[in-house]
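stage 2 :: seqdesign
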């Protein structure tokens, strides 16, 4: 969950947290630059200036790039070299990616520049901070990055905008030529010197930014999935004993324990559960989609924890090639390779698909009169005349099928580029893009389960637990109580929006402050 950041984010004072990345990228929190970071920037910029005067060739300073690294560039053409690099690499295609992704990319490149390991000048670093604070967002097409050598095309579009070229989106959503937009914002285009063009485009920032946003969103969605499971257990007259803490501790996965605790809190003192205990035909055990919810949801949580570990390591990194070392050497390296990020982005997509799958199975059980313990077929008001939530489950099924396709790893693929100089690439950007689509699908699947479970509970004679009832009451502020068939798509859209905004979780927490 994102935290509130009350002061300017000081870049270079310490590594950014995932929460701060979300705050700046999504909520436009302003950034500043720590003076100690700028001092280190000055020191490494002086190293590059010294190499620029050297007679020996230095990659990124006085040579071409990639497969053209053997071409020596004379001093009078090196500004053109750097700016030509940015222009040629700003070669994305497709629909523009989301502003929050571009802002995250800008922020993370700024953080690396501020480490003083890239050799750029102070004014170039400041230009990135100024662009973020202006609210202008470079327009970047969806396709173009292979996740190695970093996110070249997306980062090139960002650098191009700072040069006063390409297009940007204004805070009001209008797309403007970058030069005009910078002028309106009182910003001056930058001119690049030796190594700066290369330093601005050679990083994993796009992949990492999308990973940070995904971790935040999936944390919220797995909380919603716990809540949805608790609603479905009550709606189906399920058993709550399987969620007991001592049973969970027999298999001590931390995510499993957390999800089970969330479900227990959401079920506490439920009249529906108590009525089921008094039922003379109590079942020995429930179906897997109910009984095993902590195990599946918990595995998702543990996958998120692993992804967070990788992301936090990357946030402590300075990714560039070549890099200016702490002792002043300029060295080529392979730290731009996106494999660590690509793997966990793909891993999260697998978890997302399975979390959606178990949610859809619980919804299907709610709608089937053979398994729903007395609920009307498809939760219809007048079955036959009304179809209830029949097609809402179809929508879930269609999304889950799509999520299974999106769970196919992107990072197992590699297509050589740059005349075989870059002969193994990560495809981590593709992994990030499909994960964002998968998270959108999961949000819709979980919202439909909550919508259906709330309707099922309303059709029962007894209320749900205090926590669950608070969630249902909050849902009813936008989605009416059960009745004859209505235009269903707007109700689904409202439920999806409420999951996205977090208001349902907030209602649960207000009813039980210790709830997840």
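stage 2 :: out
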């Amino acid at each position: 969950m994102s935290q509130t950041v009350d002061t300017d984010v000081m870049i270079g004072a310490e590594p950014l947290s995932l929460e701060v990345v979300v705050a700046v990228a999504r909520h436009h929190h302003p950034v500043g630059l720590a003076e100690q970071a700028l001092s280190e920037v000055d020191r490494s910029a002086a190293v590059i200036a010294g190499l620029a005067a050297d007679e020996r060739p230095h990659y990124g300073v006085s040579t071409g790039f990639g497969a053209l690294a053997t071409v020596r560039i004379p001093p009078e053409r090196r500004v053109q070299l750097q700016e030509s690099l940015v222009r040629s690499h700003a070669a994305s295609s497709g629909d523009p990616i989301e502003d929050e992704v571009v802002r995250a990319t800008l922020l993370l490149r700024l953080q690396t520049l501020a480490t003083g390991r890239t050799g750029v000048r102070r004014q170039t670093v400041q230009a990135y901070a100024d662009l973020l604070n202006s609210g202008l967002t470079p327009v970047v097409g969806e396709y173009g990055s292979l996740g190695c050598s970093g996110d070249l095309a997306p980062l090139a579009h960002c650098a191009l905008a700072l040069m006063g070229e390409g297009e940007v989106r204004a805070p009001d959503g209008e797309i403007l030529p970058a030069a005009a937009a910078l002028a309106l914002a009182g910003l001056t285009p930058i001119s690049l010197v030796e190594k700066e063009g290369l330093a601005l485009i050679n990083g994993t920032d796009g992949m990492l930014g999308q990973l940070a946003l995904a971790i935040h969103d999936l944390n919220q969605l797995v909380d919603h999935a716990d809540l949805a499971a608790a609603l479905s257990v009550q709606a189906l007259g399920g058993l709550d004993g399987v969620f007991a803490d001592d049973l969970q501790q027999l298999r001590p996965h931390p995510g499993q324990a957390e999800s089970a605790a969330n479900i227990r809190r959401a079920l506490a003192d439920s009249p529906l559960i108590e009525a089921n205990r008094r039922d003379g035909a109590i079942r020995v055990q429930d179906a897997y989609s109910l009984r095993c919810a902590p195990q599946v949801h918990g595995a998702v949580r543990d996958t998120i924890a692993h992804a967070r570990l990788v992301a936090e390591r990357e946030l402590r990194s300075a990714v560039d090639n070549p890099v200016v070392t702490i002792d002043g050497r300029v060295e080529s390296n392979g730290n731009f390779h996106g494999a660590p990020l690509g793997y966990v982005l793909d891993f999260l997509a697998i978890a997302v698909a399975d979390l959606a799958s178990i949610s859809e199975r619980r919804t299907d059980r709610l709608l089937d009169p053979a398994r729903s313990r007395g609920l009307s077929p498809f939760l219809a008001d007048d079955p036959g005349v009304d179809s209830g939530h029949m097609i809402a489950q179809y929508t879930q099924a269609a999304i889950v099928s799509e999520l299974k396709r999106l769970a196919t790893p992107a990072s197992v693929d590699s297509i050589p580029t740059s005349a075989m100089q870059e002969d193994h690439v990560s495809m981590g950007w593709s992994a990030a893009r499909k994960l964002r689509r998968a998270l959108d699908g999961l949000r819709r699947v979980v919202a439909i389960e909550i919508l259906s479970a709330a309707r099922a509970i309303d059709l029962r004679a007894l209320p749900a637990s205090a926590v669950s009832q608070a969630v249902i009451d909050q849902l009813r502020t936008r989605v009416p109580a059960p009745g004859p068939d209505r235009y269903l798509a707007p109700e689904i859209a409202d439920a999806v929006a409420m999951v996205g905004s977090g208001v349902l979780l907030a209602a649960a927490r207000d009813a039980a402050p210790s709830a997840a």
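stage 3 :: structure notes
- The radius of gyration is 26 Å.
- Residues 498 and 504 are 6 Å apart (CA to CA).
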